[in-house]
Design a protein that fits this description.
Structural class: mainly alpha
Order of helices and strands: EEHHHHHHHHHHHHHH
Number of helices: 14
Radius of gyration: 21 Å
Distance between the termini: 29 Å
Amino acid sequence: MNHRITVAGRQFSLLQMTWPVFIELLLQMLVGNIDQIMLSQYNHTAVAAVGNANQIMTTLILSFNVISLAATIMLSQYLGARETKKAEQIYTLAVGLNLVISLVLMLALLLGADPLLSLLKVPMEARAEAKSYLIITSLSLPCQALMLTFGAFLRAHAKMLVIMCSTGLINLINIVGNAAFIYGIGPFPRLGAAGAALSTTICRTAGMLLMMAAFFRTIPGARLSLKNLRPFPKDVFKRFLCIGLPSGGEGLSYNLSQSVSLIFVNIMGTYAVTTRMYTMMFAQICYMLISAVSQSAAIIIGYCVGAHDFDQADRQNWRVLKYFAPISLTVAVLLAIFARPLYGLFSSDPQVIALGQRVLWVDVLLEIGRCFNIVLVRDLQAVGDVSFPVVIGICSQWIIGVGVAYLLGISWGLGLVGVWIAFMLDENLRAVIFVVRWKKGRWRSLKTV
Protein backbone atom coordinates (compact mmCIF):
# COMPACT_ATOMS: atom_id res chain seq x y z
CA MET A 1 0.00 0.00 0.00
CA ASN A 2 2.96 2.30 0.61
CA HIS A 3 4.01 2.38 -3.05
CA ARG A 4 4.77 5.65 -4.81
CA ILE A 5 3.20 7.12 -7.91
CA THR A 6 4.60 9.94 -10.04
CA VAL A 7 2.28 12.64 -11.39
CA ALA A 8 3.40 15.80 -13.20
CA GLY A 9 6.98 15.25 -12.05
CA ARG A 10 6.03 14.84 -8.36
CA GLN A 11 6.18 11.66 -6.35
CA PHE A 12 3.36 10.72 -3.97
CA SER A 13 3.03 8.00 -1.35
CA LEU A 14 -0.52 7.59 -0.09
CA LEU A 15 0.53 6.13 3.26
CA GLN A 16 3.13 8.82 3.91
CA MET A 17 0.55 11.49 3.12
CA THR A 18 -2.20 9.82 5.14
CA TRP A 19 -0.67 9.25 8.57
CA PRO A 20 0.07 12.95 9.26
CA VAL A 21 -3.49 13.82 8.16
CA PHE A 22 -4.88 11.17 10.52
CA ILE A 23 -2.87 12.53 13.44
CA GLU A 24 -3.94 16.05 12.45
CA LEU A 25 -7.62 15.05 12.40
CA LEU A 26 -7.21 13.23 15.71
CA LEU A 27 -5.79 16.40 17.21
CA GLN A 28 -8.53 18.48 15.58
CA MET A 29 -11.10 16.17 17.13
CA LEU A 30 -9.48 16.72 20.51
CA VAL A 31 -9.59 20.48 19.98
CA GLY A 32 -13.30 20.15 19.24
CA ASN A 33 -14.08 17.59 21.95
CA ILE A 34 -11.59 18.34 24.70
CA ASP A 35 -14.04 20.94 25.98
CA GLN A 36 -16.70 18.26 26.44
CA ILE A 37 -14.21 15.73 27.87
CA MET A 38 -12.91 18.14 30.48
CA LEU A 39 -16.35 19.58 31.21
CA SER A 40 -17.63 16.04 31.92
CA GLN A 41 -15.62 16.31 35.14
CA TYR A 42 -17.25 19.70 35.82
CA ASN A 43 -20.95 18.88 35.28
CA HIS A 44 -23.14 17.09 32.70
CA THR A 45 -25.27 20.16 32.05
CA ALA A 46 -22.17 21.92 30.70
CA VAL A 47 -21.51 18.93 28.39
CA ALA A 48 -25.00 19.22 26.91
CA ALA A 49 -24.61 23.02 26.61
CA VAL A 50 -21.30 22.85 24.76
CA GLY A 51 -22.57 19.98 22.58
CA ASN A 52 -25.44 22.14 21.34
CA ALA A 53 -23.27 25.22 20.89
CA ASN A 54 -20.64 23.22 19.00
CA GLN A 55 -23.30 21.93 16.59
CA ILE A 56 -24.03 25.55 15.63
CA MET A 57 -20.34 26.45 15.41
CA THR A 58 -19.52 23.39 13.30
CA THR A 59 -22.26 24.27 10.82
CA LEU A 60 -21.03 27.86 10.51
CA ILE A 61 -17.40 26.81 10.17
CA LEU A 62 -18.41 24.59 7.26
CA SER A 63 -19.16 27.80 5.36
CA PHE A 64 -15.41 28.38 5.26
CA ASN A 65 -14.97 24.93 3.74
CA VAL A 66 -16.80 26.15 0.63
CA ILE A 67 -13.75 28.26 -0.16
CA SER A 68 -11.12 25.99 1.42
CA LEU A 69 -12.29 22.89 -0.46
CA ALA A 70 -12.38 24.79 -3.74
CA ALA A 71 -8.87 26.08 -3.06
CA THR A 72 -7.51 22.57 -2.38
CA ILE A 73 -9.17 21.06 -5.47
CA MET A 74 -8.17 23.87 -7.83
CA LEU A 75 -4.63 24.17 -6.48
CA SER A 76 -4.00 20.43 -6.86
CA GLN A 77 -5.23 20.57 -10.46
CA TYR A 78 -3.31 23.75 -11.35
CA LEU A 79 -0.14 22.45 -9.72
CA GLY A 80 -0.60 19.17 -11.60
CA ALA A 81 -0.89 21.24 -14.79
CA ARG A 82 2.08 23.41 -13.62
CA GLU A 83 0.20 26.70 -13.81
CA THR A 84 1.80 28.63 -10.94
CA LYS A 85 0.30 32.03 -11.86
CA LYS A 86 -3.23 30.69 -11.36
CA ALA A 87 -2.14 29.22 -8.03
CA GLU A 88 -1.04 32.66 -6.81
CA GLN A 89 -4.44 34.11 -7.73
CA ILE A 90 -6.16 31.37 -5.70
CA TYR A 91 -4.12 32.20 -2.58
CA THR A 92 -5.25 35.84 -2.53
CA LEU A 93 -8.83 35.17 -3.60
CA ALA A 94 -9.41 32.41 -1.02
CA VAL A 95 -8.06 34.48 1.89
CA GLY A 96 -10.17 37.51 0.95
CA LEU A 97 -13.40 35.55 0.52
CA ASN A 98 -13.11 33.55 3.74
CA LEU A 99 -12.19 36.63 5.76
CA VAL A 100 -15.31 38.49 4.58
CA ILE A 101 -17.57 35.46 5.18
CA SER A 102 -16.20 34.95 8.71
CA LEU A 103 -16.78 38.57 9.72
CA VAL A 104 -20.39 38.44 8.50
CA LEU A 105 -21.05 35.16 10.38
CA MET A 106 -19.42 36.48 13.55
CA LEU A 107 -21.73 39.50 13.56
CA ALA A 108 -24.79 37.33 12.83
CA LEU A 109 -23.95 34.98 15.71
CA LEU A 110 -23.37 37.80 18.19
CA LEU A 111 -26.81 39.20 17.35
CA GLY A 112 -28.70 35.93 16.98
CA ALA A 113 -27.46 33.54 19.71
CA ASP A 114 -30.75 33.44 21.65
CA PRO A 115 -33.01 32.66 18.64
CA LEU A 116 -30.65 29.90 17.49
CA LEU A 117 -30.64 28.18 20.87
CA SER A 118 -34.42 28.46 21.07
CA LEU A 119 -34.74 26.97 17.58
CA LEU A 120 -32.63 23.97 18.64
CA LYS A 121 -34.83 23.55 21.73
CA VAL A 122 -31.77 23.46 23.99
CA PRO A 123 -32.86 22.34 27.49
CA MET A 124 -33.43 25.39 29.71
CA GLU A 125 -30.98 24.15 32.34
CA ALA A 126 -28.19 24.20 29.71
CA ARG A 127 -29.18 27.32 27.77
CA ALA A 128 -27.26 29.97 29.74
CA GLU A 129 -23.97 28.05 29.47
CA ALA A 130 -24.59 27.30 25.80
CA LYS A 131 -25.10 31.02 25.09
CA SER A 132 -21.93 32.12 26.88
CA TYR A 133 -19.91 29.46 25.02
CA LEU A 134 -21.44 30.51 21.69
CA ILE A 135 -20.84 34.25 22.16
CA ILE A 136 -17.20 33.88 23.19
CA THR A 137 -16.24 31.36 20.47
CA SER A 138 -17.95 33.46 17.78
CA LEU A 139 -15.17 36.03 18.22
CA SER A 140 -12.67 33.45 16.95
CA LEU A 141 -14.48 32.78 13.64
CA PRO A 142 -12.16 35.00 11.52
CA CYS A 143 -9.13 33.20 13.00
CA GLN A 144 -10.73 29.80 12.30
CA ALA A 145 -11.48 30.86 8.72
CA LEU A 146 -7.89 31.89 8.00
CA MET A 147 -6.50 28.81 9.76
CA LEU A 148 -8.59 26.55 7.49
CA THR A 149 -7.68 28.56 4.38
CA PHE A 150 -3.91 28.41 4.90
CA GLY A 151 -4.27 24.76 5.93
CA ALA A 152 -5.94 24.12 2.55
CA PHE A 153 -2.97 25.71 0.76
CA LEU A 154 -0.50 23.54 2.67
CA ARG A 155 -2.59 20.41 2.01
CA ALA A 156 -2.64 21.06 -1.74
CA HIS A 157 1.17 21.21 -1.64
CA ALA A 158 1.20 17.88 0.29
CA LYS A 159 2.67 19.52 3.41
CA MET A 160 0.79 17.14 5.70
CA LEU A 161 3.52 16.84 8.32
CA VAL A 162 3.67 20.63 8.76
CA ILE A 163 -0.10 20.78 9.34
CA MET A 164 0.08 17.89 11.82
CA CYS A 165 2.77 19.57 13.93
CA SER A 166 0.90 22.88 13.93
CA THR A 167 -2.32 21.16 14.99
CA GLY A 168 -0.47 19.35 17.79
CA LEU A 169 0.73 22.63 19.23
CA ILE A 170 -2.77 24.13 18.92
CA ASN A 171 -4.18 21.16 20.83
CA LEU A 172 -1.63 21.56 23.61
CA ILE A 173 -2.59 25.23 23.98
CA ASN A 174 -6.26 24.25 24.20
CA ILE A 175 -5.70 21.62 26.89
CA VAL A 176 -3.62 23.97 29.05
CA GLY A 177 -6.16 26.77 28.55
CA ASN A 178 -9.06 24.49 29.45
CA ALA A 179 -7.38 23.34 32.65
CA ALA A 180 -6.74 26.96 33.63
CA PHE A 181 -10.11 28.48 32.72
CA ILE A 182 -12.61 25.64 33.35
CA TYR A 183 -11.35 24.60 36.78
CA GLY A 184 -9.76 27.92 37.82
CA ILE A 185 -6.18 26.79 38.29
CA GLY A 186 -3.80 29.32 39.83
CA PRO A 187 -4.87 32.96 39.48
CA PHE A 188 -7.64 32.17 36.98
CA PRO A 189 -11.33 32.08 37.99
CA ARG A 190 -13.46 28.91 37.71
CA LEU A 191 -15.48 29.68 34.53
CA GLY A 192 -16.89 26.30 33.39
CA ALA A 193 -18.32 26.44 29.84
CA ALA A 194 -17.26 30.08 29.40
CA GLY A 195 -13.69 29.08 30.30
CA ALA A 196 -13.71 26.34 27.66
CA ALA A 197 -14.88 28.92 25.11
CA LEU A 198 -12.11 31.34 26.07
CA SER A 199 -9.50 28.60 25.72
CA THR A 200 -10.90 27.60 22.29
CA THR A 201 -10.72 31.23 21.12
CA ILE A 202 -7.08 31.52 22.19
CA CYS A 203 -6.08 28.26 20.49
CA ARG A 204 -7.79 29.25 17.20
CA THR A 205 -5.91 32.53 17.19
CA ALA A 206 -2.65 30.66 17.74
CA GLY A 207 -3.64 28.18 15.01
CA MET A 208 -4.15 30.95 12.49
CA LEU A 209 -0.71 32.42 13.20
CA LEU A 210 0.96 28.99 13.00
CA MET A 211 -0.66 28.06 9.66
CA MET A 212 0.22 31.42 8.14
CA ALA A 213 3.84 31.13 9.28
CA ALA A 214 4.07 27.54 7.96
CA PHE A 215 2.67 28.58 4.58
CA PHE A 216 5.10 31.42 3.98
CA ARG A 217 8.09 29.42 5.27
CA THR A 218 7.52 26.09 3.47
CA ILE A 219 6.00 27.05 0.10
CA PRO A 220 8.63 28.50 -2.26
CA GLY A 221 7.55 31.83 -3.75
CA ALA A 222 4.29 31.86 -1.77
CA ARG A 223 2.83 35.36 -1.49
CA LEU A 224 -0.44 37.20 -1.14
CA SER A 225 -0.91 40.34 -3.20
CA LEU A 226 -3.85 42.32 -4.52
CA LYS A 227 -1.85 42.61 -7.75
CA ASN A 228 -2.83 38.99 -8.41
CA LEU A 229 -6.44 40.16 -8.64
CA ARG A 230 -5.77 42.95 -11.17
CA PRO A 231 -7.44 42.57 -13.52
CA PHE A 232 -9.93 40.58 -11.51
CA PRO A 233 -9.66 36.88 -12.53
CA LYS A 234 -13.32 36.31 -13.38
CA ASP A 235 -12.66 32.85 -14.80
CA VAL A 236 -10.91 31.71 -11.60
CA PHE A 237 -13.61 33.26 -9.40
CA LYS A 238 -16.38 31.62 -11.40
CA ARG A 239 -14.70 28.22 -11.18
CA PHE A 240 -14.13 28.83 -7.47
CA LEU A 241 -17.86 29.17 -6.92
CA CYS A 242 -18.75 26.34 -9.32
CA ILE A 243 -16.51 23.95 -7.35
CA GLY A 244 -16.78 25.46 -3.86
CA LEU A 245 -20.53 25.94 -3.52
CA PRO A 246 -21.49 22.36 -4.41
CA SER A 247 -18.44 20.85 -2.64
CA GLY A 248 -19.05 22.80 0.55
CA GLY A 249 -22.80 22.51 0.11
CA GLU A 250 -22.77 18.75 0.67
CA GLY A 251 -21.04 19.11 4.02
CA LEU A 252 -23.14 22.13 4.97
CA SER A 253 -26.36 20.25 4.18
CA TYR A 254 -25.19 17.29 6.28
CA ASN A 255 -24.49 19.46 9.32
CA LEU A 256 -27.73 21.38 8.97
CA SER A 257 -29.60 18.07 8.89
CA GLN A 258 -27.64 17.00 11.98
CA SER A 259 -28.72 20.23 13.68
CA VAL A 260 -32.37 19.44 12.96
CA SER A 261 -31.98 15.87 14.24
CA LEU A 262 -30.44 17.34 17.38
CA ILE A 263 -33.79 19.06 18.00
CA PHE A 264 -35.37 15.58 18.15
CA VAL A 265 -32.70 14.41 20.60
CA ASN A 266 -33.16 17.51 22.79
CA ILE A 267 -36.85 16.57 23.08
CA MET A 268 -35.78 13.16 24.46
CA GLY A 269 -34.00 14.75 27.43
CA THR A 270 -30.54 15.72 28.69
CA TYR A 271 -29.36 12.11 29.10
CA ALA A 272 -30.05 11.45 25.38
CA VAL A 273 -28.18 14.65 24.42
CA THR A 274 -25.22 13.61 26.55
CA THR A 275 -25.22 10.10 25.04
CA ARG A 276 -25.30 11.59 21.54
CA MET A 277 -22.31 13.82 22.32
CA TYR A 278 -20.19 10.90 23.53
CA THR A 279 -21.33 8.66 20.66
CA MET A 280 -20.39 11.29 18.09
CA MET A 281 -17.00 11.56 19.76
CA PHE A 282 -16.36 7.79 19.51
CA ALA A 283 -17.72 7.56 15.95
CA GLN A 284 -15.29 10.27 14.89
CA ILE A 285 -12.44 7.77 15.27
CA CYS A 286 -13.75 5.84 12.24
CA TYR A 287 -14.54 9.09 10.45
CA MET A 288 -11.03 10.46 10.99
CA LEU A 289 -9.33 7.36 9.62
CA ILE A 290 -11.21 7.29 6.35
CA SER A 291 -11.29 11.08 6.07
CA ALA A 292 -7.50 11.21 6.35
CA VAL A 293 -6.90 8.74 3.58
CA SER A 294 -9.63 10.29 1.40
CA GLN A 295 -8.06 13.75 1.70
CA SER A 296 -4.68 12.41 0.63
CA ALA A 297 -6.18 10.34 -2.19
CA ALA A 298 -8.22 13.30 -3.46
CA ILE A 299 -5.09 15.46 -3.72
CA ILE A 300 -3.29 12.75 -5.69
CA ILE A 301 -6.36 12.30 -7.91
CA GLY A 302 -6.49 16.08 -8.44
CA TYR A 303 -2.90 16.00 -9.69
CA CYS A 304 -3.75 13.01 -11.93
CA VAL A 305 -6.70 14.86 -13.44
CA GLY A 306 -4.60 18.00 -13.95
CA ALA A 307 -2.08 15.85 -15.81
CA HIS A 308 -4.93 14.01 -17.68
CA ASP A 309 -3.96 10.61 -16.25
CA PHE A 310 -7.52 9.33 -15.71
CA ASP A 311 -6.62 5.64 -15.43
CA GLN A 312 -4.30 6.38 -12.50
CA ALA A 313 -7.08 8.38 -10.84
CA ASP A 314 -9.46 5.42 -11.18
CA ARG A 315 -6.95 2.96 -9.75
CA GLN A 316 -6.25 5.22 -6.82
CA ASN A 317 -9.95 5.50 -5.92
CA TRP A 318 -10.57 1.73 -5.78
CA ARG A 319 -7.27 1.02 -4.05
CA VAL A 320 -8.25 3.27 -1.14
CA LEU A 321 -11.65 1.59 -0.72
CA LYS A 322 -10.15 -1.91 -1.01
CA TYR A 323 -7.66 -1.36 1.80
CA PHE A 324 -9.38 1.05 4.16
CA ALA A 325 -13.06 0.02 4.18
CA PRO A 326 -12.28 -3.20 6.12
CA ILE A 327 -10.06 -1.25 8.55
CA SER A 328 -12.83 1.27 9.23
CA LEU A 329 -15.34 -1.53 9.83
CA THR A 330 -12.98 -3.30 12.25
CA VAL A 331 -12.53 -0.13 14.31
CA ALA A 332 -16.33 0.34 14.50
CA VAL A 333 -16.82 -3.24 15.73
CA LEU A 334 -14.14 -2.81 18.42
CA LEU A 335 -15.79 0.42 19.62
CA ALA A 336 -19.14 -1.41 19.93
CA ILE A 337 -17.58 -4.34 21.81
CA PHE A 338 -15.90 -2.04 24.34
CA ALA A 339 -18.79 0.44 24.55
CA ARG A 340 -19.48 0.03 28.26
CA PRO A 341 -15.97 0.81 29.52
CA LEU A 342 -15.62 3.62 26.95
CA TYR A 343 -18.80 5.41 28.06
CA GLY A 344 -17.84 4.64 31.65
CA LEU A 345 -14.77 6.84 31.24
CA PHE A 346 -17.00 9.90 30.96
CA SER A 347 -20.27 9.02 32.70
CA SER A 348 -21.49 6.93 35.62
CA ASP A 349 -25.14 7.25 34.51
CA PRO A 350 -26.40 3.71 33.68
CA GLN A 351 -28.94 5.18 31.21
CA VAL A 352 -26.18 6.86 29.21
CA ILE A 353 -23.97 3.75 29.18
CA ALA A 354 -26.77 1.32 28.17
CA LEU A 355 -28.13 3.62 25.46
CA GLY A 356 -24.66 4.35 24.11
CA GLN A 357 -23.90 0.64 23.76
CA ARG A 358 -27.03 0.06 21.65
CA VAL A 359 -26.30 3.06 19.45
CA LEU A 360 -22.70 2.01 18.76
CA TRP A 361 -23.87 -1.36 17.39
CA VAL A 362 -26.07 0.48 14.90
CA ASP A 363 -23.05 2.66 14.13
CA VAL A 364 -21.15 -0.42 12.90
CA LEU A 365 -23.50 -0.64 9.90
CA LEU A 366 -23.45 3.13 9.49
CA GLU A 367 -19.65 3.21 9.13
CA ILE A 368 -19.74 0.86 6.12
CA GLY A 369 -21.73 3.38 4.12
CA ARG A 370 -19.90 6.40 5.50
CA CYS A 371 -16.53 5.00 4.44
CA PHE A 372 -17.64 4.74 0.80
CA ASN A 373 -19.36 8.13 0.97
CA ILE A 374 -16.37 10.05 2.26
CA VAL A 375 -13.95 8.56 -0.26
CA LEU A 376 -16.23 8.75 -3.29
CA VAL A 377 -17.56 12.25 -2.58
CA ARG A 378 -14.03 13.65 -2.21
CA ASP A 379 -12.83 11.83 -5.32
CA LEU A 380 -15.82 12.99 -7.37
CA GLN A 381 -15.10 16.54 -6.23
CA ALA A 382 -11.41 16.16 -7.10
CA VAL A 383 -12.25 15.15 -10.69
CA GLY A 384 -14.74 18.01 -11.09
CA ASP A 385 -18.02 16.12 -10.60
CA VAL A 386 -19.15 18.46 -7.83
CA SER A 387 -22.89 18.97 -8.38
CA PHE A 388 -24.07 15.35 -8.29
CA PRO A 389 -22.85 14.53 -4.73
CA VAL A 390 -24.51 17.61 -3.25
CA VAL A 391 -27.87 16.95 -4.95
CA ILE A 392 -27.92 13.33 -3.78
CA GLY A 393 -26.63 14.35 -0.37
CA ILE A 394 -29.32 16.96 0.22
CA CYS A 395 -32.14 14.64 -0.87
CA SER A 396 -30.98 11.66 1.18
CA GLN A 397 -29.86 13.57 4.27
CA TRP A 398 -33.15 15.40 4.63
CA ILE A 399 -35.63 12.75 3.48
CA ILE A 400 -34.01 9.84 5.32
CA GLY A 401 -31.54 11.40 7.78
CA VAL A 402 -34.16 13.84 9.10
CA GLY A 403 -37.56 12.51 7.98
CA VAL A 404 -36.99 8.87 8.90
CA ALA A 405 -35.14 9.96 12.07
CA TYR A 406 -38.28 11.75 13.24
CA LEU A 407 -40.46 8.79 12.26
CA LEU A 408 -38.33 6.19 14.08
CA GLY A 409 -37.03 8.28 16.95
CA ILE A 410 -40.10 10.34 17.89
CA SER A 411 -43.21 8.87 16.25
CA TRP A 412 -42.30 5.21 16.81
CA GLY A 413 -40.62 5.89 20.15
CA LEU A 414 -37.26 4.27 19.36
CA GLY A 415 -35.42 7.32 20.71
CA LEU A 416 -31.75 7.86 19.92
CA VAL A 417 -31.42 4.33 18.49
CA GLY A 418 -34.13 5.14 15.94
CA VAL A 419 -32.34 8.36 14.97
CA TRP A 420 -29.11 6.39 14.43
CA ILE A 421 -30.90 3.78 12.30
CA ALA A 422 -32.06 6.62 10.04
CA PHE A 423 -28.48 7.92 9.80
CA MET A 424 -27.33 4.40 8.87
CA LEU A 425 -29.93 4.09 6.08
CA ASP A 426 -28.96 7.51 4.71
CA GLU A 427 -25.23 6.73 4.58
CA ASN A 428 -25.65 3.33 2.92
CA LEU A 429 -28.13 4.53 0.29
CA ARG A 430 -25.78 7.32 -0.78
CA ALA A 431 -22.84 4.89 -0.84
CA VAL A 432 -24.59 2.66 -3.40
CA ILE A 433 -25.48 5.65 -5.58
CA PHE A 434 -21.93 7.06 -5.56
CA VAL A 435 -20.37 3.69 -6.42
CA VAL A 436 -22.63 3.48 -9.48
CA ARG A 437 -21.79 7.09 -10.40
CA TRP A 438 -18.04 6.51 -10.31
CA LYS A 439 -18.27 3.21 -12.21
CA LYS A 440 -20.15 4.89 -15.08
CA GLY A 441 -17.02 7.01 -15.68
CA ARG A 442 -18.72 10.23 -16.77
CA TRP A 443 -16.12 12.13 -14.74
CA ARG A 444 -13.45 11.25 -17.35
CA SER A 445 -15.04 13.67 -19.82
CA LEU A 446 -15.57 16.59 -17.42
CA LYS A 447 -13.69 19.82 -18.04
CA THR A 448 -10.69 20.33 -15.73
CA VAL A 449 -8.18 23.14 -15.45
